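Exercise 7b. C-alpha cells:
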C-alpha cells in the first residue's frame, strides 16, 4: 500500500479538473485513494459518488501530515455518528470519528470513563492508558524546579469543581448586582 508521503508526492500540484479525470479513468488512483482514505479515517469511501472521491483526495492532500499519520496509527475508534464534547468547553477537544486521535480519546476517557461505550475499537488496557496519559500531561504542565511559574492575572487557586457564578463568591467580596426596586426617576410609566 502507498504511504501518505508517497501519495502526496505523486499527486501533488494537479488541478481539480485533472483529479476528476483521474477519478473517472485511472484505477490505480482510485485504489490508492480508497486504501489510504480507509486506513486513515477508518470509514468506507462511497465509491459511487464522484464528489466523495474528490473529497477524499482533498482530505489526504490538505490535512496536516502529522495528524493524518496519528489518525492512521490510532488504537481507538468511535462509533459512527458519535460526537464527544469537552465537559470544560474547549472546542479543540470536540471529537468525531474523522478527527479522533489516541491523545484525544485518552483525554475523554480520563475525564469521563463512562464514554467508553461510544468507542467501537479500544485496547484492553484503556483504563491504564488513560491514567498514564493524565500523569504525562501533568508532567508537561508542571514547572521545572528552580524556574519561576509564568505570571497570571489571578493568583488564587482555582477549584475546577465549582462554577464561577456570583453565588460562589463570598458575600464580603460581592458587589451590588442590582439596585433595590423602587420608584424610578424620569418619565412616568405609560398605562
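Sequence design result:
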Amino acid at each position: 500500500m502507498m504511504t501518505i508521503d508517497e501519495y502526496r508526492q505523486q499527486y501533488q500540484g494537479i488541478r481539480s479538473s485533472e483529479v476528476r479525470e483521474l477519478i473517472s479513468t485511472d484505477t490505480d488512483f482510485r485504489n490508492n485513494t480508497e486504501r489510504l482514505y480507509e486506513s486513515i479515517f477508518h470509514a468506507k469511501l462511497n465509491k459511487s459518488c464522484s464528489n466523495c472521491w474528490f473529497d477524499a483526495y482533498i482530505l489526504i492532500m490538505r490535512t496536516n501530515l502529522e495528524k493524518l499519520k496519528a489518525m492512521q496509527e490510532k488504537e481507538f475508534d468511535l462509533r459512527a455518528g458519535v460526537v464527544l464534547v469537552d465537559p470544560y468547553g474547549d472546542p479543540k477537544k470536540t471529537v468525531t470519528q474523522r478527527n479522533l486521535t489516541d491523545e484525544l480519546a485518552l483525554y475523554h476517557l480520563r475525564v469521563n470513563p463512562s464514554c467508553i461505550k461510544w468507542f467501537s475499537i479500544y485496547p484492553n488496557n484503556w483504563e491504564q492508558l488513560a491514567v498514564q496519559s493524565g500523569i504525562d500531561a501533568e508532567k508537561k504542565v508542571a514547572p521545572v524546579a528552580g524556574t519561576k511559574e509564568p505570571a497570571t492575572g489571578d493568583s488564587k487557586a482555582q477549584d475546577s469543581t465549582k462554577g464561577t457564578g456570583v453565588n460562589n463568591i463570598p458575600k464580603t467580596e460581592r458587589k451590588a448586582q442590582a439596585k433595590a426596586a423602587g420608584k424610578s426617576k424620569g418619565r412616568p410609566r405609560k398605562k
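Instructor comment: Residues 86 and 92 are 8 Å apart (CA to CA). Residues 126-141 form the longest helix (16 residues).
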